[in-house]
């Protein structure tokens, strides 16, 4: 690695490099951990269907990991994607099939509940598979870890024994945070009932630290003695979080802003067990279209497959990169803008110096090896082209693209080819159902006729900038438009059937001057006929 690149990384203001420097300085102090590698971790609670917020942790943590590896290329790193699939399911999620099947197993660990989707041995395994499928689609390098596996294999035995040994100190931390009623029953240990298989929230009546056993009263009133090892118990989640850090030696883990108090409590417990908690970044939460927090169980927001139906994974990675400490609205209408932002960053990258490249999101998205930019066509332009053509399939868009960009093809422009498919799908699902054309009024018809004549007078071929300037000039000379914004809004509403649109010069150059003139003249003809119906024929 060039020394200058590392020097730039040491000074970069990009947040992954800031986090990586803090990890190297504050957590590690320049020393390699005794386990021989730096461990990054992400936690996943698979009680509901996976959503983008969950996967954002992995994307962002990977960005910090890659930044750290640039700063410390000789230090091995690993990323554990840890699923808390030993948790007992407390309620049936709203957005799953076969709810009755799941309801019959409430209280059991997720990996002991039948899969309502019928694809895996358990509900937990189904959701874990969905998590891994998404991570694999990004090409992440990670080690998937299952709490069920760690508990049942005995690899958490040491941690559970440590919690038992420090039981009183942990209770002193936890009890003041609980209500009076909960204080009477709280224990960091949740026994797994040998009769029902349910994870029990019951008080611990006695403990034998040397033997590694506890005594509790079961719901049927019987006293039960059980070991804290071998998966006979699991831990309440704050203690469980701390114990995982302690056993695994986690060095870096992100969490949502709503978990700040929980992270603080788990950190205290981790120190009681004898380890330092990991460095932590608290990120803001995603909001749905109504400004409400996205919930796994409610399913209010975008699932991973929703985003990937309309846009490439790279755009989702950009959404995760941008301002992790700011709350962001996550809904379908943010997708086109995010795709175009990605394309803009990609276009800039080859022309930037080393320092700016490290601050460019595409460096972090593509781990320092972003692809070459292609044609310069934006997702918004493709959407508007699909809209005006009423596109049903990709061939319609490629007809115009191949004329506008000679030599462009699906083989020579693979990203653009993917965007064409995404644009047609987005148009069919979101744009087409909401298109509402309107007729021009007499003054607008005069302006449109003026525009058509001006376009016809242009030499062929005319580039986008010349066309854009012409559109401006036509709008300025018609007093019915008090500002250019009103002129462009009229073009969007009359010609495209929507209240937002593209840069008209670029759009007309792509769609074609003769085609645009014909579109304008059809709109004028409908106004002259006094047509009252919806202008779907445009």
Q: State the end-to-end distance.
A: 57 Å
Low-confidence parts: 531-535
Helix content: 40-55%
Top CATH class of the domain at 442-528:
Mainly Alpha
By oligomeric state, this entry counts as single chain
- Dominant shape: elongated
Would you report the number of β strands? 13
Mean pLDDT: 91
CATH architecture assignment of the domain at 442-528: Orthogonal Bundle
Output the CATH topology of the domain at 442-528. Arc Repressor Mutant, subunit A
**Major β-sheet strand ordering:** 3-2-1-9
Radius of gyration equals 29 Å
Q: Assign the structural class, choosing from mainly alpha, mainly beta, alpha/beta, alpha+beta, or little secondary structure.
A: alpha/beta
> Mind summarizing the main beta sheet?
4 strands, parallel
Q: Note the beta-strand portion.
A: 5-15%
The tally of helices reads 24
Detail the topology: elements first, then pairings.
Blueprint: H1 3-11, H2 15-27, E1 38-44, H3 52-71, E2 77-83, H4 99-103, H5 123-138, E3 143-146, H6 147-153, H7 157-165, H8 167-174, H9 180-185, E4 189-191, E5 204-208, E6 213-217, E7 223-227, E8 233-235, H10 237-248, E9 252-253, E10 255-256, H11 260-273, E11 282-283, E12 286-287, H12 304-310, H13 313-321, E13 328-329, H14 335-348, H15 354-359, H16 361-365, H17 379-389, H18 394-404, H19 414-431, H20 442-456, H21 464-476, H22 484-496, H23 504-511, H24 513-528
Parallel strand pairs: 1-2, 1-9, 2-3, 10-11, 12-13
Antiparallel strand pairs: 4-8, 5-6, 6-7
